[in-house]
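User: structure tokens for Expansin-like EG45 domain-containing protein, please.
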Amino acid sequence: MALKVSLAIIFGIVATLISVALAAPGTATFYSSYVPSACYGNKNYGVMIAAASDPLWQNGAICGKTFNVTCTGPTNPVPHPCTGASVVVKIVDHCPGCGGTLDLSREAFAHIANPVAGIIKIDYRQ
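Assistant: Done. Predicted tokens:
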């Protein structure tokens, strides 16, 4: 029994480390106009959504994919913008010429950081 528990704990630690290691660094901004979107037109997908920047867009192939996003720090003088939480967002739009990797909905951004920051450093993974 103790061996099974030990193996489960070790597996959990290894899985967490691999998950963190696979996260990509980037930046996030936020927006407040949700529809229409480049992926789904006027269909509403809630508020935990995001738009993909040009490098991620791939002619819309990213539409519908979900990403776990975590704030990792500030990009400007706003001290300690991160809340310590992560958020899962669905890609529903394209953000051509966007200043960040992901352009989050205001609600998704506020879940992971103080909106006063405007732009933050993030780790994101599918």
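User: Anything notable?

Assistant: The chain has a mean pLDDT of 87.
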